[in-house]
Structure formats: structure tokens, C-alpha cells
TrEMBL record:
Enzyme nomenclature, EC number: 5.3.1.16
Family: Belongs to the HisA/HisF family.
Keyword hit for Isomerase: yes
A biological process from GO: L-tryptophan biosynthetic process
Organism: Sphingobacterium spiritivorum
InterPro entries for this protein: Aldolase_TIM, His_biosynth, Isoase_HisA-like, RibuloseP-bd_barrel
Full protein name: 1-(5-phosphoribosyl)-5-[(5-phosphoribosylamino)me thylideneamino] imidazole-4-carboxamide isomerase
Pfam families reported for this sequence: His_biosynth
A Gene Ontology term for the protein's cellular component: cytoplasm
Amino acid sequence: MYIIPAIDVLDKKVVRLREGNYDDVTTYDISLEEQIDRYHANGTELVHIIDLNGAKGDFSNQEYLFNIIRKTEMKIQYGGGVRSIEKVKELIDAGVFRVIVGTQAITNPEFLEELSTLNEGKIKYADHIVIAIDVLDEVIKYSGWLESSPIKLIEYIDKCLALGFLPFSVYRYQQRRQVRWCRCRIV
């Protein structure tokens, strides 16, 4: 098993949202750079960063995040508001190792198809993509857990595999008798 630590960033601060709720934020007293350095010191090679501002269409964190990405020796898996091929290219050009796509991949099949065939020089973009899939009680969720997809999880994964995408980040959240649990895995 390979564990990839995740860091959420909101307004240039390391945070955690409770169940994706922007009104229920825990802010940590550590900078993103310090948190990345801690993971690196412990032998971590790859970190998963979500720009929560970007997820809402506000890219005011982007230059701050790009400066940190350029400085670190860590490989960065980056997501939050990736809704276009141009944004994917911009992130890879900025030094992002893998770009996380979620909502756009689920809601826009043409986006995935175009991304699967995109090659520039030695860069095959599909090799730098992580497909993020959030699942609540066996239903694929998107747009910050607010919308539900009629697509079945296995069908969606099969479709993505057929297009050449691997790996996946699957976050499964289940409710049972008022007890909630989650399982996160990279396939």
C-alpha cells in the first residue's frame, strides 16, 4: 500500500473542511511549505494538494502554490478547479507531477477523451492525470459532494481505463446507523 498525504489549502492556509463544508473549516498553524517539508523529512515522495479556492473558481492562491511547487523536491499531485485542457497544461508546465481531475472528468466526457489523446513533444498528458472519484453510499458524487452522477463506479473506472487513465483517487464515504466511515485508496 502506498499512502499519499493530502493537504487542503484555502486562502494560502493549510485547512481541513468538515464534509466539504466551506463554513466548517479547521485551520492549522503551519504553512504549506512547512507541512511539505515535514512530509519530505519523513521520507514521503509525493503529496496531494487541493486548492480549495481554485475548486470554487478563484485562482488567487495559484502563484503562491506554484512558487512552493517550484522550490520543493517533492512530487506534487494537484487539484482544485481543473476544468480545461489549458489548465492541465498550465499546471504541468508549472512543475506539477500529476493533475487531479474530478468534476470535469465526470460531467464532460469530451474533456476526458481530448485529454487522453493529448501529446506534446515527450509529454503524454494522460500519464500525468489522476482521476478523482468521490463515492457516497455507492453513488459517485461531484461538485464538492453536492451533485450525484447516474454512472456506476465500475463502469466509470472501466471507461477511464479504456482511455488510458491510471491512477485513480477514490474517496469512499459510507453511512451506517449514524456511524460514518471513509476509506481512501489509490487504485
